[in-house]
Specification:
The chain is an alpha/beta fold. The protein contains ten helices and six strands, in the order αβααααβαβββαβααα. It has helices at 4-11, 23-31, 36-43, 47-51, 62-82, 96-113, 170-187, 221-230, 236-242, 262-271; strands at residues 20-22, 85-88, 122-133, 136-149, 155-162, 194-201. Strands 1, 2, 3, 4, 5 and 6 form a six-stranded mixed beta sheet that branches. Strand 5, helix 7 (170-187) and strand 6 (194-201) form a beta-alpha-beta unit. Helix 2 (23-31) runs antiparallel to helix 7 and helix 7 packs across helix 8. The chain is elongated, with a radius of gyration of 20 Å.
Length: 279
């Protein structure tokens, strides 16, 4: 759970680039059944919504955030004790260039070290990233990156999301895939020496052993293709972006109960006698 989960709330208060997204914001779009109206309202300031003084969108309650953060801190403390080396990248927040430079240095040092210390990885916590994927500028903070020396002068790099949920979700995997794409674009030629992987650490993850074989991993390639297709120039997000809000299709359902725009969408649907009410 990175700090950009809460920073999304502040983004609603100020003008921001309309070709810029956060990784956690894209994950929220996935979590809300890829609702076009959710994405449109999250991305763009709506004049009617502002004039009516609707409550500010809150993607996560402070209580849930605190619970998730406490669990994350417990997991990180457990991981930190078992790592060959641990670095906190929170000092690079809002300085993605320095973050990438330091990350590259750590990877190069791990490649040159050649030997693995009892299977223990180098761990990097809260790593800021940014870059362009398709038609969009994307930024975010990868919760955890584990780096292990590998054979043939290579390293294994696995990016993790730390979640308080009991089960791994598609939205979590999408977030990891975004960070993998951002890192690949930044590493350039060095990427040929890296085996990039992704995983999600949740409540039930066993952290007794930090070898690559025991920590969570999922198949990245389908998720990467989904992200590239979604953020492409002719992708769904750009289509929604170019569509005026009144023409953006949506359907009210049980999933909307946890959405910060729920009240706005219900009132607008009633006033316009929209078929979105027929769920």
């Amino acid at each position: 759970m990175s700090n950009d989960d809460l920073n999304l709330e502040n983004s609603h208060k100020k003008k921001r680039s309309k070709d810029s997204l956060t990784a956690s914001g894209i994950a929220e779009y996935i979590r809300f059944n890829c609702c076009p109206r959710f994405f449109k309202l999250r991305l763009e300031d709506d004049e009617e919504a502002e004039n009516r003084k609707w409550p500010i969108f809150k993607p996560i309650s402070p209580l849930l955030y605190d619970v998730g953060k406490t669990l994350e801190e417990k997991k990180v403390s457990e991981l930190k004790e078992k790592a060959a080396n641990y670095q906190d990248f929170t000092k690079y927040t809002e300085n993605e260039e320095a973050s990438f430079n330091n990350l590259r240095e750590v990877i190069e040092e791990t490649i040159s070290s050649k030997e693995m210390v009892d299977g223990k990885p180098v761990l990097l916590y809260q790593v800021p990233m940014n870059g362009r994927i398709g038609a969009w500028k994307v930024k975010g903070i990868a919760d955890l990156i584990a780096i292990w020396p590998s054979k043939g002068g290579k390293v294994k790099v696995r990016i993790f999301e730390l979640k308080s949920s009991w089960l791994e979700q598609t939205a979590h995997r999408i977030q990891v895939a975004i960070y993998v794409l951002l890192l690949l674009k930044e590493l350039g030629d060095l990427s040929s020496k890296i085996n990039l992987e992704g995983g999600v650490i949740n409540r039930e993850t066993n952290l007794e052993n930090l070898t690559p074989e025991t920590l969570p991993k999922f198949k990245l390639s389908p998720l990467i293709m989904d992200v590239e297709r979604l953020l492409a120039e002719n992708g769904e997000l750009n289509r929604i972006h170019k569509t005026p809000l009144p023409e953006v299709e949506y359907q009210l359902c049980s999933r909307c109960d946890n959405c910060g725009f729920n009240e706005y969408c219900i009132v607008c649907s009633v006033e316009n006698e929209s078929i979105a009410l027929l769920n």
